[in-house]
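Worked problem 6 (solution included).
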Amino acid sequence: MTELLKFKYFYIIFFTFISITVVTTNKISADQKIKIIADEISVDQDEGIIKATGNAIAVDQNGSKIKSDVIIYSEKDSIINADGNIILNDVDGNTYFLENLQTDDEIQNLKGVEIRARLEDGSRIVGSKLIRKNGVTALENTEYTPCLENDYLIENCPGWKLKAKNIFQDSTKKTIYYDHARIHLFNVPLFYVPYFSHPDPSVNKRSGFLMPTVETDQNLGDSFSIPIFYNIKGNLDLTFTPTIQSKSNDFYSINYRQLNNRGLFNIDASIDDNNDGSGTSNHLFFEGNLNNPYGTLNTYLQTSNNDTYMRKNKINKLTVLKSGLNFEMTDESRYFAIDTVAYKHLSIQSGEQWEYVYPRLIYNIDNIKDQIFDGNVSINNQFDFNKELNDDYTSLASSQINWNKNIINNKNGLVFENKANLRVVSISIDSKSVKDTDNIRFYPQINSLISYPLIKSSKQTNQTITPIIMPILAPYNNYTSAQTISNSNLFSPNRAISIKEWESGPRVNYGLEWFIDNNEDKSVKFTFGQSFRLNKRDSDSIEELSDYYFSSDATINDNFINNTIVLDRKDIDVKSISMNTYSKIYDFKFKIDYDYTSGKYSSINEQIAVGGEYNFKKNFYLKFTGTKDVDTNTNIGYQYGLLYEDNCLGIDLNYYRDKTIDRDIKESDGYSFTIVLKPFGSTRSYGKSKVFGPIID
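Solution. The predicted structure is:
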């Protein structure tokens, strides 16, 4: 019993000692701005020194953390000294590796040597010495690169890096400054700048230089452009781009963007320096989307004082400029729109270039319930006043009532899509060359698209075969010429596009659709059809029985092919072919657009456009795009080149040949070379746009 009491007293004394130690330690931490933990901690109460060794960690009140072999904290001086295998994590997500560090107990002001840093955005900085004071960080003998080591093209060689004698990072201005900087591409020094700066990783948008573009062109000569970005406010910015050309006028471009409570506004403009004395050329584009409680209001302006200026300098390829105003308002059953538009046709060399719509009003009413036949009724109204290219002035008022009712016969599976239309059009034409005309046109029509879907399903595939017949009852009229039938409008109730016209005469469209789907992103669709015109008029150029129309669509994962063929019904000869394909085979992607029209039936036309991309090595791409007139065996234009792109660097080298000729626009060829140092630029757009065929996304 006596022995048990001895052990009991021993446990009480031991527990009391541990409790006092814990309380004392907590008291020290409570009085400090820094918390320290380690494998071993010793405290010198007289000197106010805490020494932590073995996995020592110091954490300040904001969450910044220091980890080191040894941490010594002086309470009197509020100074932390760390030595050996130091890792500093700041509140911004940056990580620093050092051999020696001294800092205050808020880990704000510090000194260190042999620094390696991984910033929050993944970029890296190394230097021999670091000092941070009052929000400014200074590093000596420094290298910076945003390149990730896993993406290095050459071992131990980043795509690009920036070496500087001194680097300063101002946390208030959120800017990094470089003193005597050299830009290295694959460790080869290319550029020297005595002073350089860029936003730090926390900044989404900051003023400064964007990446330049260097090009050479047969007609324009060598050209150099460098965009200058000015971030006026968070919702307001401006980009100014001077373009210097050795054989043509230099020109200067601006792009202004603003977003506010009133809407989104964009201005794009340029002007040349008239160095050749032929007169100053310019362009001005404006677009404004105005917020209002009633609907959407859009304004737009496109103007240039020289028809070939933009295409010649490869600013864009527009041949029609459009300016005007548009307002739209819609709800569940109504749609209202008013717009006024002016078109300028730049490709017209002599004669009138302008046509106008002022104004056009549209008012549609939908979802009117037909109580008698249990159908749906809609009404379309339109009024517009136009000035045509031939100087005719046309005023038009149109009203159309539409009725439709779909019926599915549950007994036999037949599907009926029934429609009835009546359009009344009043047209007045003030002509400069012939007698003025005024007339009212009536376009009534009744039609039904009757289909009989036959469905077969299994575990792997679903098949649907659908015979279709579409009888259309409409009178002949004197205002609509014969409409061309195509695969896209084979089952259309009205092939006329203009509101002033309606396809006339009774007719029957019929055909077959076959759809196969295997539930694994693979599907095939075939369509066959023909059209028959009843009581065809002698003056109608379209034959009573049309040609045969075939179309097919096949999809296998990301690959597809769309093909349409028109066969002459008399001798089964090919009249036209149109094909679009996209394929991805391993690292090779390509698109083909092909169009062919037989010379037996009209002017021969055969054209092929190709776009391709081959990822032959990690981050390396061979790219090609071009269009060729197969009939004349001549290229319309093509471009091919090499693209290298990783997480920090983009290099794009292209050769192009453009066969476009229009007044002072001559056939040209040349090279385009762009280097983009991310994150300062983007490889999504390189210099001037030149697209000659399908684009590989």
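Discussion: The two ends are 88 Å apart (CA to CA).
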